[in-house]
Amino acid sequence: MTELDTSHAARGARRRERTRTLVLDAVERMLADRSPDSIRIEDVAAEAGVSPASVYVHFGTKDGLVAATVERLAEYVRDALRTAYAAGSTPFGQFQQAGVAYIRLLLDHPALTRYLAGGGISGLESSAEQTLSERIAPLREEFEQRIRAAIDAGEMIPTDARRLSYFLLGAWGGVASLALRDDAVALDAAEVERAVLEASSALVVGLTAP
């Protein structure tokens, strides 16, 4: 393969990746406020600014498109939490960093918040939902391990790490879901983040070992 051929292939790969990203971003925006059943390939293409044929070429079917979208959402959670753990110098620091990263992730990705706070997305094809659940479950277990490590290190008061992990992830998801509402109890994203960070600071004080 000549240098010209290599350059052309590289441009083609970048173009395909841009198209794929545009389409997945479009589906994620749609899933934030509607069910997969109501999404049409033509709507996705219009939202992404590409042709319907491009969507079919990259994802084959609507089920394949939705599955790829939820898979990417799971990857966002994994990457955000593991980056947060790497930033914490102690187990308790990792626990704190994970909380901040998680709430910001939920605010940046409303479709993920809708899934986690609502017990699933209505109309989500069963295999796609199972895939997302299977990716999220080990991440909850990793969070539990960070809590247990902080307890073992004497940084956190003794508590049930498993139950606390479920409570915190559920509570953060529930508060983040207020940003999705359009009624009297709704909060904008900035208010949600402030509320969670202030409450988490108070919680940290209560959990810190004397």
Summarize the model shown:
The chain is mostly helical and 210 residues long. It has helices at 3-31, 41-48, 52-59, 62-87, 91-108, 110-118, 126-152, 161-176, 189-207.
Walk me through the structure.
The chain has 210 residues and is mostly helical. Helix content is 76%, strand content 0%. It has helices at 3-31, 41-48, 52-59, 62-87, 91-108, 110-118, 126-152, 161-176, 189-207. The longest helix is centred in the first third of the chain and has 29 residues, at 3-31. It is globular. The termini are far apart.
User: Cα-atom Rg, whole angstroms?
Assistant: 20 Å
Order of helices and strands: HHHHHHHHH
Unreliable stretches (pLDDT < 50, length at least 5) are none
Structural class by SSE content: mainly alpha
What is the number of helical segments per DSSP (H or I, 4+ residues)?
9
What does the overall shape look like?
A: globular
Number of strands: 0
Major pleated sheet: none
Beta percentage is: under 5%
* Percent helix: over 70%
Global mean pLDDT: 86
Cα end-to-end separation: 66 Å
List keywords for this structure.
globular; 210 residues; mainly alpha; 76% helix; 9 helices
Topology:
Elements: H1 3-31, H2 41-48, H3 52-59, H4 62-87, H5 91-108, H6 110-118, H7 126-152, H8 161-176, H9 189-207
Helix pairs in contact: 1-2, 1-4, 2-3, 3-4, 4-5, 4-7, 5-7, 5-8, 5-9, 6-8, 7-8
